[in-house]
Amino acid sequence: MPREDYEAVMGLEVHAELSTKTKIFCSCKTTFGAEPNTQVCPICMAMPGTLPVLNEKVVEYAVKAGLATDCEIARDSKNDRKNYFYPDLPKSYQISQYDKPLCEHGKIEIETSNGKKVIGITRIHIEEDAGKLNHDEFSGGSLVDLNRAGVPLIEIVSEPDLRTTEEVEAYLKKLKSILEYIEVSDCKMQEGSFRADVNVSVRKKGDSNFGTRTEMKNMNSFRSITRAIEYEIDRQIDVIENGGKVDQETLRWDEVSGKTFSMRDKEDAKDYRYFPDPDLVAIKLSEEYIENIKNSLPELPESRKQRYLEEYKLSEKDANIITSSKYLSDLFEKAIEICNNPKAVNNWIISDISRILNEKEMEPNEIPFKFNELGKLVILIDKGTISSSIGKKILEELFENPKDPEQIIKEKGWIQISDETQIKEVVKKILEANPQSIADYKAGKDRALGFLVGQAMKETKGKANPKMLNQMFLEELKK
Ligand code: ADP
Ligand code: ZN
Ligand code: MG
User: Given 52, 80, 180, 413, which is the most exposed site by the fewest CB atoms within 10 A?
Assistant: First the structure.
């Protein structure tokens, strides 16, 4: 059967670390990157006789996430033990939720090149993260760091509604932006606070049954997720085309070879021997509690987008890019408050800032400068203190060494030359050096003017006021 007759099916389990100050069952800190085993206590180290106490913030954040994704919130919920051994899981079980998750039956709307599509959210539940193994290349052994043990997570499980890598990426980005907007997770992928288990299967187009899925765990970059899915779809089709059967298994994606490798047979729920955690009380939520959280939800990306279309007349595409990240969206709004020039701020974000983020493979939330610096940059250009080409240099500098743009200008000597005699001198010099361009212009080749202005800009290292240059060249050329 030709490959085009196959269809891929994907479902994602996303783990997001919650940005609570303390862990889920003890009062240890959750700060990322601390010295190993400095944020631990007898509870998260699983000493015998210790008892967990549920952090109320965790419930609040999970309910927030549920409400923001149109889930039903359980009035009656509980914690369960998921039993398995792993060296970084000292209790030998993980406290999670099994048959009574906090949130169920939600949805997220995504946008793709084929239009809008709704992706179902099966459930959102709370659980604890495990510790971390550091594989020590010198000793040949592995060292356990329990700082992450007990950091609160929500797991967001999607329905198997995704069909293409484009849909998967759109879904992940939308989910990430929602969590950022409601401020329950910083979603820093490079720090592992937003990671996805990717389930993939293939079937004949038109079939109503799903094929057997494989699962790739803990993926934390959009690029590797796309590559891994594409590889896995191909591999599964090959297996079927060669008369074989896809095994349900957990795979490891290897970024270097660009292949998946089998890790273990996929376990089923029954293998975990789930049972209600007897150390924790049931979670009962009142109508009032849920209502209060609903009322505290901030404006979500969809509504911000509509506002940008109407208030600032942004294009649909620009509004999508800016609202896709709360950081960009906040930067946009706050910079406008300072410079009152939405069009310019929009342009900076869509063109230069996006380009630099891309080049540096950075996430918007890693932008090192603040909204007031961007706002001031726009003002300096609007006032004519600097040209927009100097503006670009300042932006590059803001990424390297963020500080007040005026300070940067002073230190670098980048003030725009708007002094008439100075500009006139440059114009004269350039005209003298380029008699051919003068002849060209007089022969009707307008492009010659652009060339001359370009030369003058080069001569002044981008500091000459382009408007004045243009004007003065025109005056001279018309003589
Ligand atoms: P587990 O924890 O055992 O992986 P879950 O039910 O929590 O099981 O998650 C299963 C995930 O796999 C869901 O996101 C679901 O949408 C997805 N999924 C289930 N069946 C398929 C399939 N045949 N093909 C692709 N994805 C699937
Ligand atoms: Zn602790
Ligand atoms: Mg899974």
Answer: 413
